[in-house]
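Chains adopt folds. We examine one example:
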Amino acid sequence: MANDILVSVGKMSAGIASAIIILRIMNLKSWRYFQEYNRLQGKTFVITGANCGIGKELTRQIVTSGGNVVMLCRDTQKGKIAMKEILQKPTPTMGTVTLRRMDLNSFASVENSAKEIIESVPRIDCLINNAGVMMAPFSMTEDGFESHMQSNHLGHALLTHLLLPKIASFGSPQNPTRVVFVSSTLYKRGNIIEDHFKSGAVTPENFDQKFAYSNSKLASLLFARELSNEVKRRGLPVIINSASPGMVYTNLGRHFNMSWYQKLFLLPFFAVFVRAPVEGARIILYAAASEKSLHSNGAFIQSYEEKPIEPKFDSEMCKKVYQLTMDAINKSHS
């Protein structure tokens, strides 16, 4: 009897495993890939959060394809380890990689890093605002903002604002330079709350851990859309887009607390649908360098396609978020 049960369980487990493998292969075939690696050669990319996850994989793919990367990392020790791992596998077209410390949760750190980059980096072809935090417990930055909002949005907005003149100076109408905000479809769960853009307004009592990530990603997406309009009005040869890499297995989810049985229940789903960093990075590279995305501006790119955003997040809301953001970063670093 016991042996029969074990045999049945073994057959069922083998069947489930086979089904997962088949679905995974089918899913991989349906995912298109970025293949224009020749367009990375000789170009310089500035990447935040470049020491792990998608940021590290972006750095690896760009550098091994002949591009140059400036890694911006809060933890320089982890950055050095990542850089060493990337450089241990050289290619004939190897580009260069440099490391600089920058903490998005400090506007002073962002300003110092931007100043160093402007003075020492010969050119910038693309800024990739990649770093982020998700489901972290409440934390207030030295500038008085909740950490999700500053790390995921306000810090990147300030960095983009400071580097934009240099980025624009190397673009042309035929070959514009680019800024990519790494986004998420979870923006759909977000809300724009004006107090989140005010220093000291978010407290442990009114902080909502479940929606902090979505709120910050919505703010980033709407800011990017209006920034693209501002760039057009000023006649700058820069493309501004947001791109979602999809569900990617990285340490972004390190703050999730799941029981063993929840993890076991979700394992088949993760095995089929969650991308590896190498796959997620390719979608970001599509927004950052592909000829096919040259005509996208202010777009939300998901799975290599430009997708419409929720209708409720209209142009007026984009303008509102842009102004709230500029007021926040201007007051804090003026």
Observations:
- The chain has two domains: 1-30, 37-333.
- The two ends are 77 Å apart (CA to CA).
- The chain has nine helices and eight strands.
